[in-house]
Amino acid sequence: MAAPYLRLRNISKRYGRTTVVDGVDLDAAPSRFVCVLGPSGCGKTTLLRLIAGFETADGGTIHQNGRDVTVLPPEARDYGIVFQSYALFPNRTVAANIGFGLEATGVAKATRASRVSELLTLVGLTEHAAKYPNQISGGQQQRVALARALALSPGLLLLDEPLSALDANVRAHLRTELQSLQRRIGVTALMVTHDREEAFSVADQVVIMNEGRIEQTGSPEDVYQHPVNLFVARLLGGCNALPVDVIGDTMAVAQGLKLQTAGVTINGIARSHACIRPGAVLVGQEADGTPNCFTARVAAITFLGDIVRLLLQPGDSPQAVIEAEVLRSRLNRIPQPGETLSFALPPRQLMFLGGA
Fold first, then answer.
1. Which residues touch 61 (CB under 8 Å, ≥6 apart)?
2. Which residue of 153, 159, 226, 265 pairs with 191 in a disulfide if CB–CB is 3.0 to 4.6 A?
């Protein structure tokens, strides 16, 4: 395997008595798209600022392409950055904004014009070259900021929640464009975001942060299918989490529900919750006759177009509430509140996870 393009070892940052980044180790392979995902205040933006040199680490090392950049100022590091606010110059045209870094570093005018033209084509803004930022849309401004970050052909592209200011439809479209552009250029990219869908749609590697530490890292599929704890499971989507009362060989009791597992001995493993994704819960005829089948009263229904979300109160465990998400096409009809129906928690979909 290729050596990491970006390597962080035991990186820490404190503000007074508060530790914001706490002993972070992270490797980013060349030409990969890495997304650091976590809730507000988890330390992900501070981590990006440490990589950029806007902040100085209190401990640890940062290596980029084999070079120790831990204490180098931002201008001595090899990266381009796109900020959440885009930070475009309002008095410069689109073309002038893109060429700003080239101009500041003394690139010849003819070379600069050629590179700006190339980037305008790359991000699809050739016809807007002479416009000012306030004359183009938010999505187009984001493309200008991206082109400006790429103008000097950096080895690393840093993105600080670059799509969060856009509406949902534009955001979804630009996610696809961003991923495609990164693949074509081959630049190593690191983006911080609090949006799970955004991270999953572009990343080769997802890094989950919580309270300054990395909880888990892996491919989007791996971290979703195999979360290491309840925090990760909940961050990455809906999750029914039933506190475990008793656990033994291939069986568990969670909030009064006696559950078969998938045949793997789980006795002695310190897991505090039996977890299952709402989309993995079987409902109605699909549940009948399957393992871990129970009856429940429908407490509430939410219609979400192709998906129907049901809140179920099991008869065997009145204190539990199970959320199920079912494709509308799999239901003969939509159940009504107060009805009783069958549901099942398939053993192979159960996860036994620790954490609060």
1. 7, 8, 9, 10, 11, 68, 70
2. 159
